[in-house]
Structures are given as C-alpha cells and as structure tokens.
Amino acid sequence: MKLAAHKILVMRYRFIGDTVLTVPFLRNLRTAYPKAHIDLMIEPFSGQVIEGCPYVDRVIPFELKTIHRYSKSTDRGKIAGNVHYWQMLRKERYDAVFVLKRSLSSALLVWAAGIPRRIGFATEGRGLFLTDPVKYRHDQHEVENFLDCLRVVDVPVGSTHLELWTTPEQDRKADTLFAEAGWKAGDLKVIIHAAASLPAKQWPLDRFAGIMRTLRDQYQARFVYTGAKGDSPLYESIETQGPFNGLNLCGVTSLRENIAVYRACDLFFGVDSGPMHMAAAAGVRVVALFGPTDERKWGPWGEGHSVVTKRLACHPCRPHKCSDHACMDQIAVADALAAVLVKVRSIVPRGNGKAK
C-alpha cells in the first residue's frame, strides 16, 4: 500500500559499507517525498562516510556498542540505551520508519515507539512488529534489498548508482598529499587495502607484495594505504617486501578525506571491506578479493568492477566462525594479477608506464 508520510525515519546503524549502500535508497526516497522531513539513524563513525548527503534532513547518532571494530561504548548500558531511543522516537512522532537493520531489537524498538507505518525485512521473527514486512533475499545485492523496502510501498526506483560527497578542502588535501609525495598527475595511483574487519577476509600480505611488485616494475605505479592507525603495521610489513614507497595514510587522513583520496586514484585493489564500497562509490575501478562472503550480495556495486573468488563447497559461510580461511588462501597471485592487469591496461596506454 502506498505510503503517505510527512516525517520519515530510516534506521541503518552499522558498518561503513552498509552505510554507503543505503545511498540509492535515500536518493529514491527523497525523490518520491521531496517535502518530507527525513531523518537517518546511524552509528556515528559509519555516519561520517555520508556527511553532506542531500537526501536527509538530519542524522541521529545511534550510540549503543556494536560489533563494528570502530564503534565506541557510551555511558549508557544496553537497556538504558534502548529506553533512551524509545523515548526519543515517541517524542519525534514519525509517520513512518524504514528499518533497514535486520535485528529483532530494531523492529521491536519502533513498534514500542508507536510509529504507525513500519517497513522492514521479515527476518528473525520480527514480521509481527512490522506493518509492511519485506522478504530479505540472499541471492541479490544488498542495494536491491534496500530498494525492495521502497518497492513494497510503491515508491518508484529511478536510479541505483552510488554517491559520496567531499568538500573542496578535502579534495585539496588529497591533491596536496600527492604533490608533497612527488607524484605527478599522470602517475598510475593504486589504493592497496589489506585490512579486513575479520581475519577470514584477509589475504596473505606477501601476495599483495607480489601484485605490487609487478605494477611497480611494469607501470611505475604509486601506492596508497588508508585505514585506522592500527592498520599501519600491515602496510609496513608489505613495504619490507618491496620497498614500494607507498603513501601510508593510516591514522593520518579522516574517513571523509579518504573519499577524496580515492577519487584522485585510478584503481582499488583489496579485500571485501567498507573502503572497497567507498572506492566504488567514489568512482574508482575496483578489483576485490572475496572469500567467505557472497559477492552477489556484497560485491562492489556498479559497472567496471571485478571480483576474484574461489567458491568452495562451504561458500558462503559465517566469516566470524571460519577457522582455516581456505577460500582466501586458494586465491593465487596469478588469479588476482590477471584481474588487476585487465583494469590497468584500460587505464594505461599500451607500452607506456603512465596513466591516461
């Protein structure tokens, strides 16, 4: 049944990548309801990635401790936190809520708050608390799952591309970082991302070095490392196998500044991660390594990207419970290099070591 609403809440409060993938949903929602007040409830660290989004009126930080590696604890306990948000939601008097998070607790929270229309996935037995339950599909991309929450209430979907936003200051900082490193505009700039939220998603560091060695020797590639300060040792280890003279920005640039850095690069090569989705949204070609997770659902969204994977009998699995990481270990350097070189040759003229 078509949605009539003037004040709408969207709940999706976990993970950088998930946040990036909500943008097509938010854009189509805003197009359908240009005069509505739309709030987005999100985990504060992940929320940084879509600052500047023109499709929401307000971002509400959801500050309960989650399993996100960067989430922070608060002074509130879990019970006190849920009571706090229940009281807040009741006071706001929303007409409708899209519960893009799939937990039972999130559906229970908006039901208890008395929001009249509650649209979300019928997972974890929470269909009783939703007015418009949506079938959650594991055989399609998460972007499409989010958009199904619009389709169920007859909101048209006119576009599905990703977007992220930067400021002129952030763009200038990226240019300055490259200039200070002595890089030229025509240099082939490759983002290397070896850090993953779970060990099961990681790829051996010596294999990253093998890919980089070829790109360095054949294309004089420049390499960028981004992430939290704690990720820096990964890239320091890779550098001992070079050196590759990579620009290590771990703990140096903010999440927002990394978007600008990515936008100024030519290629992203790395594991399934939030930065992989950021790169795709920034318009960078992506070559992504996938093991325990399903690339049909979580792969880089959009045209021009490639996934390298080995589909073992146990694929896909729960990566936090995987012990042997065989799916990632079976991805050879040659497998990844073949995919990377296809992208590089579309960027760099034949026989030339500089990007177009």
Descriptive report:
The chain is built from 14 helices and 12 strands. With about 350 residues, the protein is α/β, with parallel strands linked by helices. It has 2 domains: about 140 residues, 3-Layer(aba) Sandwich (Rossmann fold), CATH 3.40.50; about 180 residues, Glycogen Phosphorylase B (Rossmann fold, 3-Layer(aba) Sandwich). The strands form 2 sheets. Strands 3-2-1-4-5-6 form a 6-stranded parallel beta sheet. The protein has a 6-stranded parallel beta sheet with strand order 9-8-7-10-11-12, sandwiched between helices. The protein is globular, with a radius of gyration of 21 Å. It starts with 6 loop residues before the first strand and ends in a 9-residue tail after the last helix.
Supply the key terms.
Rossmann fold; alpha/beta; 15% strand; 356 residues; 14 helices; six-stranded parallel β-sheet; 2 domains
CATH architecture of the largest domain: 3-Layer(aba) Sandwich
Tell me, what's the shape?
globular
Give me the strand/helix succession: EHHEHEHEHEEHHEHEHEHEHEHEHH
Count of helix runs: 14
- What integer is the average pLDDT? 91
- Level-1 CATH class name of the largest domain: Alpha Beta
Integer tally of domains: 2
Q: Structural class, please?
A: alpha/beta
For the record, give the distance between the C-alpha atoms at the N and C termini, rounded to a whole number.
50 Å
Report on the biggest sheet: 6 strands, parallel
Tell me the strand percentage band: 5-15%
What is the spatial order of strands in the main beta sheet? 3-2-1-4-5-6
Query: What is the rounded Rg?
Result: 21 Å
CATH-assigned fold name of the largest domain: Rossmann fold
Q: Give me the CATH superfamily of the largest domain.
A: Glycogen Phosphorylase B
Low-confidence stretches: 66-71
Percent helix = 25-40%
